[in-house]
Amino acid sequence: MTANFFKTSQPATFFLAPLIVVVTRLAFFGDVDFDHDHWYSTPLYQKVFNWVLFAPWFEWLLATVMVIVQGFLFNAIINARGLLERVNSLPLIAYMIMASFFAEQLYVSPALIANFFLLFSMKKVLELPQQVNTRGKAFDAAFYVGIGSLFYAPALCAFVMVIAGLAYFKSFVWRDYFITLIGAVTPWLFYYAFIYITDANWETPFQINDSVIHEISLFEGATVVLAVELSLILVFILPSFFKSVRLNIVRVRKSYLLLFWWMILVLLSWYIFNVQTHQQLNLMVAPLAIMIANYFYYARIVWMRELLFYLLIALALFNTWFVN
Fold first, then answer.
1. Where do the TM regions start and end (predicted)?
2. What per-residue confidence (pLDDT) applies to 215?
C-alpha cells in the first residue's frame, strides 16, 4: 500500500481508505470516559444530535460513517473540478486521514456536522468559473454556510470563502454579493421563524453550552503535538503546492489559492476569535487534504512522497491511540 496506489481510481482504493480510517479510530470505540468537547454546540445541534450519546459505540460508528461519506464527497468534488488532472483517490485518503487525525474528530461534534454543509458550499464555489449566471451558485454556497453555522457557529467564517470565490472567479457585480448575503441569512431567518411559530425556548445559535466547555491552552500537550505535526506536514507539502499553483491553468490556480487562504482563515480564526476547541481545526480538513493530495500527485521524489504517506498514517495512529 503506497501513495502511488491511490493515484488511481481502482475500486480497491474505495475499500482500503475506509479501512485505514476505521483502524485509526478504533482506539475510541466504546470509550465512555472520553471528555466530549462540545464548545459552541448550538441549541439546534443539541436538539438534533444529543440523542446519539445514548451509547458511545453508536456515536463512534456514526462519526466514522460521516467521515467516510465526507471523504467520498470531497473526492468526487475534486475529481469533478479536475484539480488533479486525472481522476484518482488521493483526495479520498487525504481527507479521511486528516479527518481522523486527533481525538476531537473521533466522535460526533458540531464541527463534524458543519463540515458536511461546508463541503457542499465549497462545491458550489468551485463551480462558479463555469457559470454564466453566478447568483444561483453563490446563493446556494452561502446558504450551506448558513445552515452549517446553525450547528457550529464559528463555521460562519466560511462565508468569507464564498465572497472570495466571487471575487476570484467573477467580475464585480454588486447584485451577486447581495444575493450571497441573502443566502447566508436565509437559514437564520427560517431558524428564528420556527422558534417564533412553535414558541420554542431555544437560545441564539451563538449561545455557548457552558456545561460542556473543555477549555484548551495553546501550550497544553495535545495542542503542542498538533501544532508540531501540522507544521511538519506543511513543510513537506507547501513548496510542491505553490509550484503546482504556478504551473496550472488559471481556473485551477485560483481554486488552489482560494482553498489555501481558507486554511489560513481557519487558523487565524482559532486565535483571533479565541475559539477554545480543537474542533475548529476540522474546518481546515478540506483545504489541507487537497494540498496533501496535490503533493502526492505531483511529487517527483518517490521516497519522500511515500515517507509522508506513511508518516501521516503513523501520526494519526499516534494521536488517536496515545495522545488524549
1. 12-30, 60-80, 92-121, 141-169, 176-198, 218-242, 254-273, 279-298, 307-323
2. 47
